[in-house]
Structures are given as structure tokens and as C-alpha cells.
Amino acid sequence: MTRAARLAGILVPGKVYMRSINKVVTQCAATLVVWALGAAAGAQEPAQQSSQQSAQQPAQQSDQQTPTIKAEVGLVNVFATVRDKKKQIIPTLKKEDFRIFENDQEQKIAFFTAEKTLPITLGLLIDTSGSEQYRLPAEQEAATAFLNRVLRKGDEAMVISFDVDVDLLSDFTEDRAQLDRAIRSARINAPQASMTNPGPLPPESRTRGMRGTAFYDAIWTACGEKLATEAGRKALVIITDADDQGSKVRVEEAIEAAERTNTVVHILLVHDPGFGWRPDIAHKIADATGGRVIEVSSEKHLQEAFDQISEELRSEYTLGYYPSNSARDGTFRKIKVETTDKDFKVLARKGYYAPKDGPA
């Protein structure tokens, strides 16, 4: 079975979405085609560029950057957070303090900024499966406070819930009131056996304790169908126990979707003793994309976790380089970012997919 066939029902047409969801559904096949043609997602941001910007040479760039992210053909952007041994964020490093490698070959840093006001496009994903029923109200309160605190002028966020289905509760917007309503509209999914839209799980699975958790599908959908067309800094913040039940895509495909769209995935890992959880999966996804996993054991810790993610999002360095390997072969390239101070730990994505030329 092809990937397109497996993914055709992730966003259930019969559900009630924001009006823009129709566009999302119809773009599913187009998104897969873009990926197949190697549309440089990850190797370059999908921002619109003027011919003047495209002609600009790397030598013209300096450390004194305006608060924008370069999106030139061939430029690989990497977002990095640096912490010391005490896990405190280091915000004062310069370009010369970094080294970056692609497939173990050191690269020349062509673009660098520590600008804290760069716009961010954020996806908030809320697990609304049965395992979250006792925590959901607290998660909604903390999530609302988080968006109100982290979003600044020029930022946008969307809200998605996932259980047996993946539901877009609010498309990208700067409207805090709309985002607040979307978060508070999330409900623990309680479908009946008579539902006509089967979604990711077969109908009989819906009567066995409501175990549907389309975690991987939610990441794939958020990245592949929404963030793929966004430029600049992109991140997902996910509240979940990471115990996927019934997704149509594999965890590797969810990670690939994030890597191709240069999306950092942060996971707030919550756990109800009566249900399963997968810290190994959470770390696998976050580590590959340059994100963090924060285990949350109480409402107080939930608020603290959101505070840490907020600090993380506003303390990133942006580095860009032109790969010494200019082949447009669609291969996965490993990335490693280091600092000259070996006591510092760098959090950054582990790689990207090179662009690939389509048939003539």
C-alpha cells in the first residue's frame, strides 16, 4: 500500500474543523508530490524571495544581521540552543564560538544571528485520548498561559488535538482569543461504535477502552500539511504520553516530516499510572529534531515545563551554511553543531534531506 493511500483518512472529512481545513485536506496529495520531487524543505525555507535576495552572495553576510532568517537556494538553516553543565542557557555566544559539520565535514558558517525577536510559527498539539481525561483541564490552562506568554508580534500559532482522529482546532493566527477558544474546545474523544468515519483505527478498536492515540499521524499532519508551507523558525509543542495507538504512519515517517520541514519538536511527557507511556519514543522524536523532552508529573511541573519551553524558543541561535557537497541527490545529511567550549551542550537537529532535482 502506498503512503498516500495510508494517509488519505488522517484528517476525517466528517469532523468539524476551522474553515481552512478543506484546503489542508486537498493539499495532502500535493504535499506528498512536493516531497517526492525533493522540494528542499529542510535545506531551504519555503519563503518567497526576490531576485535581488537570490543573487546575494554569502560573502556579503555579516554578524550584524537584521531580525530575519535567510532563505536562499542551497542555504541550510540550523537552530541551536546552548546550555552549560548546570543546564543553564548560554545566550551570549558569537559566530566564532560555533563549529558545524555535515557528514563529518566542517562547513563554513555563512549566516549567524542570536536575535531573540525572530518570528516563530508554532504548533500546539494536545493529546485528547482517554489517558488524558484527568489532566486535560490543567493542560488547557497551562497551554493558554504558555501561548499568551511566548507569542509576540509577528508570531503565529495553530492548535491541533489528536486521539482516534487528528483535528485542527485553530489554523495559524495571531489572535490570542481564537487560540484560547481553540484550546478550551479540546475534548476527550468519546466516539460510539456507530460512528461512520473510521479514522486511523478500525471501528472495532473504538469500543476497547478508547485507546486510539494518533500521535505519529498528528506530527506528520502538522509538519507535512501545515508547516511545510511556512517560513522561518518552526516548532511543535506536544502534550502527550507518547504512546501511539493506531496511527497510519510510522514514527520514522513522523520524524522525516519534521526533518523535511525543519521543525523542532518539543514534548511535554505526561503519564497516568493507569495507562502506558513511551519516553523512549518521545526522546527519539525530540532528539532527531533538536527539541526537548520534559517529564511532567504534576500540574505545578506542567507550568514549569511550559516555562522552560518558552525560554528555549526565545534563546535559539540561527546558523546557516552552504554545503560543501552541492549534489542535489535527495539524500539525508547528518548535521553536528559544536561550540569551542567543550563543557557546553548544543541542542540542534541531527540532519536534513538535500534537495533533489526532478526529471527534465
Question: What does this 3D model show about the protein?
Answer:
Helix 7 runs parallel beside helix 8. The chain has two domains: 3-36 and 118-191 and 199-313, Rossmann fold (3-Layer(aba) Sandwich), CATH 3.40.50; 70-114 and 315-353, no CATH class. It is globular and about 50 Å long. The chain has helices at residues 3-7, 21-36, 51-55, 136-150, 176-185, 215-226, 251-260, 279-289, 299-313; strands at 76-83, 98-102, 105-107, 109-113, 120-127, 156-162, 166-173, 233-240, 264-270, 293-296, 317-321, 332-339, 345-347, 351-353. Strand 8 (233-240), helix 7 and strand 9 (264-270) form a beta-alpha-beta unit. The model is unreliable at 1-6, 12-66 and 190-210 (pLDDT under 50). Helices cover 28% and strands 23% of the residues. The strands form three sheets. It has a six-stranded mixed β-sheet, with helices on both faces. A four-stranded antiparallel β-sheet has the order 4-11-1-13, with no helix packed on it. Strands 3-2-12-14 form a four-stranded antiparallel β-sheet, with no helix packed on it. It is α/β, with parallel strands linked by helices and 360 residues long.
